Amino acid sequence: MSAAPQAILEKFIEVRIDADLDALTAGARAALPHLVRAMSAIDPLFMAQMGPGVPAISERLAGQQTPEARAFRLFKSPWNKLEHDEPFVEGAGPAQPGRALYPEELSAEGLEGYLASHPEQKTSLLDPYTTVERRGDRLEAVPYHQAYAKGLEPVAEALRQAAAVVEHRELAAYLSGRALALTGHLALRESDADWVKLKRPPLEVVIGPFEVYQDQLRGVKAFYEGMLLAVVPEACERLATIEQGLDELAAAIPCPAGSRPAVGGMAPMIVADELLATGDGASGIHAVAFNLPNDPWVRGHVGWKQVMIRNMMRAKFDHIARPVAERVLAADQLSHLSFEAFFHFVLLHEVTHGLGPAYRADGASVNAACGVAYSALEEAKADIGGLTLLLGMGGRIGIPALDPLDIGCSYLAGLYRSSRFGLAEAHGKANVIQYNFLNEEGALRAAGGRVAIDPARLPRAARRLLDKLTLLQAAGSPREISEFLGRYATPPQGLLDAVAGLADLPVDIVPLWPQVG
Ligand SMILES: [Zn+2]
């Protein structure tokens, strides 16, 4: 055992999560206990996917309050995914890259070799919703609804009971359809499409296999997760006003050098309060926003939804970003930390991802043209674009008019918070680029070992960086891109020291969910 469970727990802080249920209809409320049961029945499925021995460990630790048991419940697995899957439960052994979804002895090369000689099995073996099993010298794909049939039955039953009491007709139809899809009687993609098409449901019910990050062997198998959220109607209405101003927003994010934006406008955005997350959705770090489904057919033909999780964002702002800011921001600016500014910054970050260059003048996608640098440039663009929109368009098209210093402080608190997850991967590099550029432009300055924002210089500095990033995306040569990264993506000592000085603060929260079931 290489990691101490107590040290893992100290990286997290338990936070009670509030949710506003006032707007829920009686039927939606009556559905909650059933939906909580459906969500809870996802945990054993996720654990069975994670490793053959994981359900037994879960049973052994159930009800215990030891650090080991609490850390296990935090990840729903005995491996710490924040530390390269280090085992922290006695006797767990090392994590298998293919988890329980592939034969234990099968390597990535072994799988490729097999697929090369059995091309007719490629589709079924690489399907996101099948497990791979060995039968003699053959590999066989087993659909999830067969492999997990027993565990899926209580999920489907609870979804049917929820469908029977909810008054929103489309939501009820989606819930019954979801029960069918999870048990193999309807294509999951049809059900995903129904979810995207739901009009103004009171609840968002995300349940099933979605993300593939835990598949470390091939990165294709989806893991079971559940997220139950109550939609916040007044916040959604304000968002709709912002969406109607899409042309104005698009005009503010440049597409230089003959480049073109992605077509299709903006996916519907929803603001919701989370009531419960389970399975892969509650393994380690909890999302503050998600963008689903992942199925390329559904995204291409029907679209997708972006959901902003307001109460989770609030919890992380109050309990993670604020203590971080209290260590790094100039003391006389701390009173400018504002959740409203932080929330709208994150929202406009997501909006900005859909704006700006997507295709170059020669037709090449920006993603392909920028290669490995793409993610860092795109995240930096989304951040600095979101900042520019919030600074420049406050008071128009539903964007609140906020004090530039509130915006700057709340933005910077978020930048330091996320820098703690590492400065070498895409989001970390994007943070370093912004920090260095804003420093160079005088929008940030050192103030007694801390950093202060110059609100008068911030808008121009942000705009100049946005222009530079969109130009690189639209027309930058590989040499220009690597020169830019060489100049701006190297973390300066000041930032490294500041991040190192946060080591004793928690990096994330453990939600204590509201009682709704
Ligand atoms: Zn982003």
End-to-end separation in angstroms reads 37 Å
Largest sheet: 5 strands, mixed
> Mean of the pLDDT scores?
95
Pairing-aware structural class of the strands and helices? alpha+beta
The strand line-up of the biggest sheet is: 6-7-8-10-9
Beta strand count? 13
Percent of residues in beta strands = 5-15%
Describe the structure.
The longest helix is centred in the middle third of the chain and has 19 residues, at 310-328. This protein is α+β, with helices and mostly antiparallel strands. The mean pLDDT is 95. Helix 15 (310-328) crosses helix 19. It contains 23 helices and 13 strands. It is globular, with a radius of gyration of 23 Å. Bound molecules: zinc ion (ZN). Zinc ion binds next to helix 16 and helix 18. Residues 349, 353, 379, 382 line the site of zinc ion.
In short:
Among the domains are: 26-147, no CATH class; 311-508, no CATH class. Helix content is 50%, strand content 13%.
Chain-wise SSE layout:
Blueprint: H1 5-9, E1 12-16, H2 26-40, H3 42-50, H4 54-61, H5 67-75, E2 79-80, E3 86-87, H6 108-117, H7 122-125, E4 130-135, E5 138-143, H8 144-147, H9 149-165, H10 169-182, H11 188-197, E6 203-209, E7 224-231, H12 233-244, H13 246-252, E8 269-279, E9 289-292, H14 296-301, E10 305-309, H15 310-328, H16 339-353, H17 366-370, H18 374-392, H19 404-419, H20 426-440, E11 444-447, E12 450-453, H21 458-475, H22 478-488, H23 493-500, E13 508-512
Parallel strand pairs: 1-13, 8-10
Antiparallel strand pairs: 2-3, 4-5, 6-7, 7-8, 9-10, 11-12
Bound molecules: zinc ion.
